[in-house]
Amino acid sequence: MRIMHISRASLMMCRFLVPVIEAQKKKGHYVCVCGSDDSDAQRLRDVGIDVFPHQLKRNLNPIGLIRAVLCIRRILLEQKIDAVICHSPIGAGVGRIAARLAKTPKVIYFAHGLPCAPGQNSFVWFLWFCVEKALAKITSAILVMNTYDENLAVRRLTKDPGKVFRVPGMGVDMEKFKAESSETDRQRITRELGIAEGKKIVLCLAYLIRAKGVFLYFEATRRICVTRGDVCFLLAGDGPSMGKLKETVEKNHQQEGFRLLGWRNDIPLLMRSCDIFVLPTFYFEGLPVSILEAMACGKPVVATRHRGCEDAVADGETGFLVPIKELTPLVDRISCLLCNEQRRKQMGRAARQRVEQHFGLDYCTEKIVEALEKASEE
């Protein structure tokens, strides 16, 4: 079978889908991708994966979307593709329409978080729901990662529950994200960032947009630092809100207790070196990989009671879940863990065990490929 993965950005496929593609190849399929033509596309080519660029942009410009549909349709026909697997809201929408026009036999939607998510403005939610409802009619199968998406897809997007497949997420490399943290690891980070010896470290890793809860995280750090000076808060990541966050940090004179790190390529080291991981997101998550990576490193997690986060964190066992967009509960739960080293360690051990049992890379890859095989055959 000739299979093509389609996403708006090659970054997503480069970061998450290579194990799945390699597993599909081992089953005898020809597997290629259609994505952005950039350094991430070149990384895919470097590991032997053919990449066909579509020139699809992040915005919803109608002319650009039409051009992308026609470009992808042409590629599907030229490559004689039997099954497309579409990822990301924009990429999946354009990809499915193009596949319909190309009369591709199997059209699979791998939803890394349906865009009609809880916590959204009701009008925006309804618009996205209408789009997904319409596209579901030209979709052979839908893969979902969390309970909310599974219930929505089964009950409201399709009349055939057999078209919906639940998978356990993209998985975590358990060797790369280890629970053991050496003194050398910790010293390297504290020395680089100028963190005083003995201070506790709280980490948030996120794409820097408001919906990821990064401004709420900063406000929580500001409140906690008023009453205690034994903690340093880190925020790693890049994104459109970087400039605004820098201004906010400088305005509040928080440079001592807060570090805005930007993009990092040593995430496993940061995860191992921190004491607590925080992600107060209200974005349309599928199953946040950063949470699972922190748990694999044996760290307790404070996250929102939100789609995807609820499926990863066992509240009260591997961390805490707090209401979305609420500051006081977030401050309380972070403070609770800062004050109790024994509980941090207990939750961290339980977190590592949970990831080992349910979210290991090999296990998740096997389940994803199994679901894709079934979806392609039916």
Task: Write a brief structural summary.
The protein is α/β, with parallel strands linked by helices and 378 residues long. Helix content is 48%, strand content 16%.
Could you describe the 3D structure shown?
With 378 residues, the chain is an alpha/beta fold. It has two domains: 2-171 and 361-377, Rossmann fold (3-Layer(aba) Sandwich); 183-358, Rossmann fold (3-Layer(aba) Sandwich), CATH 3.40.50.2000. The chain contains 16 helices and 13 strands. The protein has helices spanning 10-16, 18-26, 39-46, 62-78, 89-102, 122-136, 147-157, 183-193, 214-227, 242-251, 267-273, 289-296, 309-312, 327-338, 341-358, 361-377; strands spanning 2-6, 30-35, 51-53, 83-87, 106-110, 141-144, 164-166, 200-205, 231-236, 258-262, 276-279, 301-304, 319-322. The strands form two sheets. A seven-stranded parallel sheet has the order 3-2-1-4-5-6-7, sandwiched between helices. Strand 6, helix 7 and strand 7 (164-166) form a beta-alpha-beta unit. Helix 1 crosses helix 3, helix 4 (62-78) crosses helix 5 and helix 12 packs across helix 15. The protein is globular, with a radius of gyration of 21 Å. 47% of the residues are buried.
Secondary structure blueprint with pairings:
Blueprint: E1 2-6, H1 10-16, H2 18-26, E2 30-35, H3 39-46, E3 51-53, H4 62-78, E4 83-87, H5 89-102, E5 106-110, H6 122-136, E6 141-144, H7 147-157, E7 164-166, H8 183-193, E8 200-205, H9 214-227, E9 231-236, H10 242-251, E10 258-262, H11 267-273, E11 276-279, H12 289-296, E12 301-304, H13 309-312, E13 319-322, H14 327-338, H15 341-358, H16 361-377
Parallel strand pairs: 1-2, 1-4, 2-3, 4-5, 5-6, 6-7, 8-9, 8-11, 9-10, 11-12, 12-13
Helix pairs in contact: 1-3, 2-16, 4-5, 9-14, 12-15
